[in-house]
Model the fold of this input.
Amino acid sequence: MRLTARQTLLLLAPLALLLGGWLVVPAAVGLAATLTTYSPLTTTVAFVGGSNYGGVIRDPQFGEAVRNVLLFTAVAVPLELGVGFVVAYLLRRPIWGRSWWRAVVLLPWLVSPIAVGVMWHYLLGGATGILNFALAWLGLPEAPSPIGDVRLALLVTIAIEVWRVGPFVAFLLLPGLLAVPRDRWELATLAGARWHERILRIAIPEIWPLLLTVGMLLTGLSLGAFDTILILTGGGPGTATLTPALYSYDRAFVTNDWPLGAASAWLIAAGVAAVGAVYIRLARRRA
Amino acid sequence: MRLRLLVLSAVAAAFLLPLAWTLLASFGVIPDDTTRPPSWTWPPTLQHFSEIGVAEPAFWQELGTSSLAALGAAALGIAVAFPAAFGLARSGIGASRTLTQAFLVLASLPPMAYVIPLSDLSRRAHLIDTFAGLTFAEAAVTAPLAVFVLYGAIAQLSPEWEEAALIDGAGLLRILRRVVLPLVAPSLAATFLVLFVLDWNMLLVPLVLTSGEIKTVPVALSDFFTFERELDWPTAASALVVSLAPLALLVAVFHRLLEGFALWGPATETSDE
Done:
């Protein structure tokens, strides 16, 4: 059926009210506030133009945070897509207890990001963790937690994020692979396609829009990396695992540097919006 | 076939090992690395589960708050996203697909991008530390994802059912409830479950919108660590197990329903044998 404009508006109204009140209005008011000295604690407000943004961009800590999050995103997103694709591909054809496999691989994603941080804090450090247990088996002495090592900390947080999100990606990709018409696979097999040709010529092109969509969600998730790192390292050691989201949180809620916190949060939003524009373009070309 | 099962088991074991380690620790089964080879504390005990209440007296109440807020937020999110997705799918607007993709971008936006002004406005509107303020905020954060998923499900439907109902004289809301709702019920149920998990696990939004009157489990967990009141591992493990248990149980019971969650394209399997 074709709705009239009035009907469409009526159907969209509840969503518009919810998003308007809790996202759009706060975001717009917040954006305007970043051009001033506004903070919930001050009574006088002065217009300062873009100087809050200038302050954030000139802050070497923010530069470190951006560098870290770009590395985090560039490594974590492809790995998550890769792990997810492999698991989904393995579950593509009927296998004993497939629906249980699907549920089981979802488990790491069910653990809240904050609980993931708590869990790995103990697993990687301390006498009762996995790491030192493995070392003890090998007869090696106890090692300090790699989270405390400046060179390893960021890589460890990436590995933990892949552990948490990779299986969820499999859950998202599997329906796409299952929806590929069966004769595509059969024709390819008859034509003598090897397994890697089946992946490159059939699986990936068939689920390309889905891969783009999942990639968008993962990129947003990585650019906003916060929860797990807050617990594991708090951004340290030094600034080794500092991300823009941790930077904004710290400025706004810990050191009471509200304008810098709000402005840097808008820079995160701008980054995700830029990726989003690319996503919409790519997805439209395929549709 | 056998190789596939083997690889799959190896991958699953690697991903589940940290969780199994935590489960063992929650029952007090922890390794002792000082013996050679390392040994395990035995027998298991339930004692650490009762210690959660000692370390965090309000833990069980926080579990209740988390459940109710996530339930309310997921229900509200679906309730506003479903009509909106139907409106977009049947509006005849040429750009409705692009508009829906914009909702996915909104769903990808990290909460940090908007929680700073949200916390300020909520304080001014006296919604800080209220159950309603928390529930509405969580719903708003997750509703865009629901719009995207439900749009995909509705766009797949053939409009002829709706048109037949229209000819029979059914109104818009009646068509939505009696015709469209049953047809996309599996997608609705799966989306509800995913939103529930996202809402239950959310940290930043409840962290900045509450200050002690009400508290969710993730916020309580973060308090322990940011305030340096470090727990001993078996008690922390018990708390982790208890906070994961409701979600694991939900997924175990409803795993068939979750198979209806498709971000793009049909959720149904093409006939395979």
Q: What stands out?
A: Residues 60-90 of chain A form the longest helix (31 residues).
